Amino acid sequence: MISKLYRNMEEFIVRKKLRVKKLMVTVMAGISMLGVGVVAGNLSSYEVNQPVIAHADSYPTIHAKVLVGNKMRDITFGSWGASPVPNSKGVVTRNSNLKGFVNSPNISGYKPNVGWVNFYYTTSTKTTKLLNKLYYTKIKGVAVTYKTQKLTKQVKLAPGHDFYNHIPGSKYTAKRLHYGRTYAGKTITIDEQGIKKGMKTPYYRCYYKGKEIGWIYYSAVVNSVKYTKIKKTATVISNPKNDFYNHVTSSIYATKRLHYGKTYKNKKVTINDKAVRVGTKTPYYRCYINGKEIGWIYGGALKNIK
What we know:
This is GW domain-containing protein. This protein is mostly beta strands.
């Protein structure tokens, strides 16, 4: 949408990428930032490509009144991208109005109805009009049951979750401390878990090299895996319940099934690597047939390993 407005603008537009200045949401005292779920985007700012307006000294402040709970509040959007709007003669000038989109800021204790909205900025009056409806509803915190733990795990290479100072959605205001990917592949220790009411799966309070890095959802971490080079042969059992994967399942790697186990039932395979997950006894084996790798499979699907 934005790229269409770049044509015929060389005289007025310097086309380049730059990062949006990260601004805090300016709301009434007592309201802090909070990343809430996927809809809110978990970010107080978002990198976008913005056209640079020729001779412009600074970007305009994009702000508007938005319903937060049951009160109208003026909030500033620190994350936005826009392009100049041609005038009635089809010409763009440095005083042109702007049209683009803004990302819904994170507001502690509230969630937006949408992740982003379109806006129109009038340069002469320095006013912003939101072209879509944006409002925030209050999030009701739920009770959490805590339990002491003593675990060692690894963060997945693609964890899909981030570290927070408190469990998101609890009665405490949660603030992201670190992106999950910052610790991808790292070994962490866990001293406590928390399960929100109505859920069965926990959040873990994690430490890296003895320093607390925050709470993260359980699916972002896995048991550590120890690998050992070996030279063995084995036979796939006649009715395997497991399949061959590109990596050990439930490891830090994203896994993809390469072959069904039954495809190679009763076939003899060679093995050059084994992997044991912490807390389990049966290994996984990396298998080959006629020199071609067919993947990793759970040891219970093999027999006559020697």
